[in-house]
């Protein structure tokens, strides 16, 4: 069960995975408040698979509000520090080490950690206990596609409770680098580097940074640490000529990564060292086009729910994450829209390495309350902080289809929430486009996303063809019965992307675990499925109004049988046939397509 190094852009040598067998129990009454109250552990669970999943060894999808985990670890205290880290625990967590409270965290999709050095038992036997609380019917917390009904319905899926990403420990020096952040600046051919220290304060500190592209040394700099941090711009030699310059630029076609070694120095002595990577690439919008590295770029995306039949939100392992990236590329897509899920950082690592763009989307809450918005903003800031440095991430999407803000046309405070999250995101990350609310009812946004599941290609031509002007589109069209832009927010020339369409349901073999399949359109045979897909893609690709598209969807997900792949990632149609139409060159024909 290989999950790879959990934090791929800050990798140290000394770390221990705590995935595997843990003791486990339910606390449906929620009466237990600390480990000393637990008299017996009746179950065992395989971490990081949630208890609702088959792979966990439990597979109980009933309503359980509170769960407990415990395991022992052999670890002798030393002269260094020990940090306990969690990739994600849904929804709120409390962690004890040897009976002492070590950490609390709220938010089901983001990492947290605790320095447990002072809690370690000198004997070397360390007991870690986790309490996770996740009310299955609470709609004010960001929950994404997790169903609040006992049986999954419509387009919602089984719940995920508790630990669902890697748990691990690492040894670090008494003074260590806690966080880093990379910011590519293609226009100036430079890369911003930020680092923040943790642990003990120390004098005479500096940081050495070595940046390479394969065997070529790009930079070897040393910076003084001031007030526990470093914030510098690394100027690279600009080759000037595009042919040479492009060798260093990251894109799906050429995913060039720059390898980094970072050393924290005290005087001339290395006290902390790790490896990282970054890339040179820029993403922005210019008038009606998406721009990658200063050039117009057609987005060919597929919507990816990020679920697996036996592990749910958790991935089966690192190989499965890599395989999903490879399959998306093999079908001709240059990106994915990770839908209602904050994906495992290992997926982003493979997307960085193999060349696949990713839209980062915040899982939705489903009620509009002050609590829901505060929870969303807090967790969204952690998402951006975690994934900021990944070159594959090209767009942020805080809201989808007005979920959690259902009355945007009439309730001003809900409009303010979308506008606030848009500007909040732009404040935390000024380098990427932001879609305030994807699908319809757009207000503050850099890209207008449209969701339209009409499978009739003639209807698509009539709505979005060459004879349609953007002002006609926004005044008259109502895909999904919703207006495309809110009053006061006319189209300002932003790129228009068909961010959901297709949804063709086809199943050759019925899944006995799924009682009723669901999709927007149905195909009865493999050939019908392929022809419907090809017709839609040819129409959308040759529609000049669109700067790109996102097809629904990558793989079947429980009752949604509308994937290009079955749930086990077996293709419904030969990958080569899918790729042939997905990657068609765009042609523009005056007066139509």
From TrEMBL:
Pfam families: Glyco_hydro_2_C (PF02836), Glyco_hydro_2_N2 (PF22666)
UniProt key word Hydrolase: yes
GO biological processes: carbohydrate metabolic process
Domain Beta-mannosidase-like galactose-binding: 65-147
Molecular-function GO terms, alphabetical: hydrolase activity, hydrolyzing O-glycosyl compounds
InterPro entries: Beta-gal/glucu_dom_sf, Beta-mannosidase-like_N2, Galactose-bd-like_sf, GH, GH2_Domain-Containing, Glyco_hydro_2_cat
Gene3D superfamilies attached to this UniProt entry: Galactose-binding domain-like, Glycosidases
Keywords, comma-separated and alphabetical: Glycosidase, Hydrolase
Domain Glycoside hydrolase family 2 catalytic: 317-581
Organism: Ramlibacter tataouinensis (strain ATCC BAA-407 / DSM 14655 / LMG 21543 / TTB310)
Name listed for the protein in its UniProt record: Candidate b-glycosidase, Glycoside Hydrolase Family 2
């Amino acid at each position: 069960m290989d999950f790879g190094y959990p934090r791929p852009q800050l990798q140290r040598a000394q770390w221990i995975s705590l995935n595997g067998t843990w003791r486990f129990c339910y606390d449906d009454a929620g009466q237990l408040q600390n480990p000393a109250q637990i008299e017996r552990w009746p179950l065992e669970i395989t971490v990081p698979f949630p208890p609702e999943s088959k792979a966990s060894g439990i597979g109980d999808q009933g309503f359980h509000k509170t769960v407990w985990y415990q395991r022992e670890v052999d670890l002798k205290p030393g002269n260094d520090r020990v940090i306990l880290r969690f990739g994600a625990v849904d929804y709120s967590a409390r962690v004890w080490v040897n009976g002492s409270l070590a950490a609390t965290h709220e938010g089901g999709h983001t990492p947290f950690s605790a320095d447990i050095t002072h809690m370690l038992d000198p004997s070397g036997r360390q007991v870690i206990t986790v309490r996770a609380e996740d009310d299955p019917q609470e709609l004010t917390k960001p929950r994404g596609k997790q169903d609040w009904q006992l049986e999954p319905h419509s387009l919602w899926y089984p719940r995920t409770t508790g630990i669902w990403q890697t748990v691990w420990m690492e040894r670090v020096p008494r003074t260590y680098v806690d966080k880093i952040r990379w910011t590519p600046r293609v226009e100036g051919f430079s890369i911003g580097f930020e680092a923040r220290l943790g642990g003990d304060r120390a004098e005479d500190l500096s940081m050495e940074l070595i940046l390479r592209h394969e065997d070529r040394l790009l930079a070897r700099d040393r910076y003084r640490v001031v007030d526990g941090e470093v914030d510098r711009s690394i100027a690279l030699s600009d080759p000037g000529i595009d042919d040479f310059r492009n060798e260093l630029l990251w894109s799906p076609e050429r995913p060039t990564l720059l390898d980094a070694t970072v050393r924290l120095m005290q005087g001339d002595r290395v006290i902390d060292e790790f490896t990282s990577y970054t890339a040179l690439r820029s993403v922005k919008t210019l008038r009606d086009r998406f721009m990658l590295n200063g050039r117009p770029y057609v987005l060919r995306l597929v919507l990816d729910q990020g679920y697996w039949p036996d592990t749910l939100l958790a991935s089966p392992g690192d190989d499965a994450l890599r395989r999903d990236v490879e399959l998306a590329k093999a079908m001709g897509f240059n990106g994915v829209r990770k839908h209602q899920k904050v994906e495992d950082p290992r997926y982003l690592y493979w997307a960085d390495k193999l060349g696949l763009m990713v839209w980062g989307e915040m899982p939705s809450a489903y009620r509009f309350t002050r609590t829901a918005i505060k929870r969303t903003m807090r967790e969204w800031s952690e998402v951006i902080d975690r994934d900021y440095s990944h070159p594959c991430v090209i767009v942020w999407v805080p809201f989808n289809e007005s979920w959690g803000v259902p009355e945007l046309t009439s309730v001003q405070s809900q409009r303010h929430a979308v506008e606030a999250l848009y500007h909040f995101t732009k404040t935390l990350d000024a380098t990427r486009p932001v879609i305030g609310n994807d699908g319809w009812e757009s207000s503050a946004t850099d890209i207008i996303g449209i969701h339209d599941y009409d499978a009739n290609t003639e209807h698509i031509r009539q709505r979005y063809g060459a004879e349609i002007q953007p002002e006609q589109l926004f005044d008259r069209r109502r895909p999904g019965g919703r207006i495309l832009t809110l009053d006061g927010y006319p189209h300002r020339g932003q790129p228009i992307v068909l961010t959901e369409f297709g949804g063709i349901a086809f199943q050759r073999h019925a899944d006995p675990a799924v009682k009723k399949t669901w999709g927007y359109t149905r195909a009865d045979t493999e050939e019908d499925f392929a022809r419907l897909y090809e017709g839609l893609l040819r129409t959308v690709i040759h529609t000049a109004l669109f700067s790109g598209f996102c097809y629904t969807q990558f793989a079947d997900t429980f009752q949604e049988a509308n994937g290009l792949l079955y749930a086990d990632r077996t293709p419904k149609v030969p990958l080569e046939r899918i790729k042939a139409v997905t990657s068609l060159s765009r042609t523009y024909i005056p007066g139509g397509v």
